Amino acid sequence: MDERRREYLRLLGVEALEPRDDGPLAPSPAPSPAAAPSPGAGPSAAAGPSAGPVAGPCAGDDWEALARRVRSCTACELAATRTQTVFGVGDHGARWMLIGEAPGAEEDRQGLPFVGRAGQLLTSMVRATGWSRDQVFIANILKCRPPNNRDPRPEEVAHCEGYLHRQVALLRPAVILCLGRIAAQNLLKVEAPLKALRGRTHSYGPAGTPVVVTFHPAYLLRNPADKRRAWEDLRLVLRLLEEAGERAGA
Ligand code: URA
User: Fold this and answer.
1) Contact 28, 239 (CB under 8 A)
2) pLDDT, tens digit (0-9, with 9 covering 90-100), for 60-114
3) CB distance 130 to ligand 1 below 6 Å
4) I want to staple 61 with a disulfide (CB 3.0 to 4.6 A). Which of 43, 65, 178, 196 is the partner?
5) What's the angle, vertex CA 60, arms to CA 72 and CA 141, rounded to 5?
6) Is the CB of 100 under 6 A from ligand 1?
7) What is the value of pTM for the model shown?
8) Do 90 and 171 touch, CB atoms closer than 8 A?
9) To test ligand 1's pocket by mutation, which of 78, 98, 107 has the most ligand atoms within 8 angstroms of CB?
10) Is residue 34 very low, low, confident or very high in pLDDT (cuts 50, 70, 90)?
11) Phi, psi of 245 (to 5 degrees)
12) Domains in the chain, CATH or no CATH each
């Protein structure tokens, strides 16, 4: 294990688990049946070539058209209070996608996801796995900041989710890591608490993309003792990536 990765593991507070990091990877748990394809409300019912045919305004969009569509979106009232939309960032060929809840103040200012304190921890979490932030794709359930960082409202999620579905269809990731309860519940269309969603593999969309659920990094900043549990979730992601034939830096 190289020195930089060791440092990220230390930041993540998982030094004690280090010897097991490089050990053989156990088979991942079977996908949970709970995760059905999203019903497809919002601007698009999602999907692309690999995900099955679903109609909707975004369905034929490439990355550029989709980004333009998101930039000019006024489908819900968040358009009136945002500074700018936050489309998502990363490698369009990424095999690992991370999905958070919604932009916060700093993300709204910069137009990029996870660039505040929680974002710094997220970057460390990714680095601890041996992957880098520019090898993954990071997006949110909502593309606009809810005022005062309140929870997303169902109608806002409904208006926005077609964009995320299309991002997933374009990307065709091998694994999605869902960050926090709200992102997980909205992506998977379930009401279960986070603790019931962690530790197993869900599946998303017509392509059945494997989904792992972990804590939101903002929660981990407030509850550092749970970083160890987050590391277990990251190990599950690594297992799924490895099963899909994906390795960091490949
Ligand atoms: N929290 C999120 O869920 N997403 C961001 O982009 C930033 C903070």
Assistant:
1) yes
2) 999 999 999 999 999 999 999 999 999 999 999 999 999 999 999 999 999 999 9
3) no
4) 65
5) 55
6) yes
7) 0.84
8) no
9) 107
10) very low
11) 80, 20
12) 3-13+26-243 (3.40.470.10)
